[in-house]
Write a structure and sequence with these properties.
50% helix, two-stranded parallel ribbon
């Protein structure tokens, strides 16, 4: 999370793709994950860098170039969340809590890209609907609980 002054706070994720089960989400996202990793590896190789192995379904997302683990502040902005709604809520919860507890009374924003490359329109639509129906209400509750602790 990156607070900006005393009145505004922002947390962001790169990609979020949901399905009713984690296995289904991983299978549907696999072509896009492989494509993103291949492009990232290609760019790294063009720059003369060593690259990591190709991502496979079930693997955690990794950068194409091996590097030290991401700092806590970098984790969500570099995240790819692929799974079921419960996994998404678990992953977002620390950031929603931090946003709710950020100083000041200004806006708090959590941004998620909800369409996924190389996934069909129907599956992307279903992911967005799951996010709206299950993730958003759960995260609103997380924020309300955190604000009550302020």
């Amino acid at each position: 999370m990156a607070p900006l002054g005393e009145s505004f706070a922002l947390a962001q994720t790169t990609l979020c793709f949901l399905a009713p089960t984690a296995a289904e989400a991983e299978a549907l996202a696999a072509p896009g994950m492989g494509h993103l990793q291949a492009e990232s590896r290609r760019w790294a190789q063009e720059g003369g860098q060593d690259v990591a192995d190709t991502w496979k379904p079930g693997d955690p997302w990794q950068a194409a170039t091996p590097r030290d683990p991401l700092s806590e502040d970098e984790q969500l902005t570099h995240a790819v969340i692929v799974g079921d709604p419960e996994a998404c809520v678990r992953r977002f919860t620390p950031y929603v809590e931090a946003l709710a507890l950020a100083p000041g009374d200004g806006p708090r924003h959590l941004s998620a890209r909800l369409t996924y490359p190389r996934v069909g329109d129907d599956e992307n639509r279903r992911s967005i609907e799951l996010f709206a129906a299950e993730v958003v209400p759960a995260l609103r509750e997380v924020a309300a609980t955190a604000r009550a602790r302020r």
